[in-house]
Design brief:
globular; 110 residues; two-stranded antiparallel ribbon; mainly alpha; Arc Repressor Mutant, subunit A; 11% strand; homodimer; DNA-binding
DNA sequence: CATATTAATCGTAATATTGCAATGTTAAGA
DNA sequence: TCTTAACATTGCAATATTACGATTAATATG
């Protein structure tokens, strides 16, 4: 089917999956890393930085924007992208809660 | 194409994406949460716990096993699954490094 | 041995994702 | 206004993912 049965899972589970999915592709990881590294707005060099065609980068940016992880503001003919710190922290909190589940666990049992 | 151009990205980027991808589906999030909650081996009740068919669960378990996040040992006619703590911690470290990138960042610029 | 139980695998349908060429849009500069 | 630039959108081909029915494999149990 290719279609996830999201309705049988909790909002929390779907939220975790939603955020994680966006990192599930190396191009988006690379884009985010670059945005962090530059530390100031990037305007268009992502296409040169990463080795993918312009429409492909544009599409990945769109997905990141849809989740709210990045912001884009038009700057003349170019567009300036940067991390949305607030949303990033929110996501970090949610994912960390999931990743830190193990503290109570005392070891493997298999 | 549906095929990610992994060769143009660094090993680190591909590794982050690989781990994240596995959480990119709520069923796998649910499976992991349940394995943590039970805190002892779960053998087959995952199918009842989560509302998906047995082959579907089996497939998700396979992916989790492939990455090394869970271990399974045969226990009679059933199979006992549990978290692979060592691998989980390794993954946590890698993802945390990615999620914590923001510390140096001083705010949005758009 | 016959049968039931449990889980893996196979095959397949439906849908999603990835990537890009072609094209559209918008704003700057000549 | 015309042209160029920087992106976004559209449309499509190739591949991946998700889900499940049917089947298979392995082990208990009567």
């Amino acid at each position: 089917m290719g279609l996830a049965k999201t309705e049988i899972f909790s909002d929390e589970q779907n939220e975790i999956a939603g955020f994680a999915k966006v990192f599930g592709h190396p191009a988006r990881v690379a884009i985010l890393q670059h945005l962090f590294k530059i530390n100031t707005c990037v305007c268009g060099d992502l296409v040169n930085e990463i080795g993918l065609a312009q429409p492909t980068i544009s599409q990945h940016l769109k997905e990141l924007k849809l989740l709210g992880l990045i912001k884009g503001s038009v700057e003349g003919t170019s567009v300036c992208y940067c991390i949305n710190t607030e949303k990033w922290l929110e996501m970090k909190g949610i994912l960390n809660q999931f990743l830190n589940q193990d503290i109570a666990q005392q070891g493997d049992c298999c």
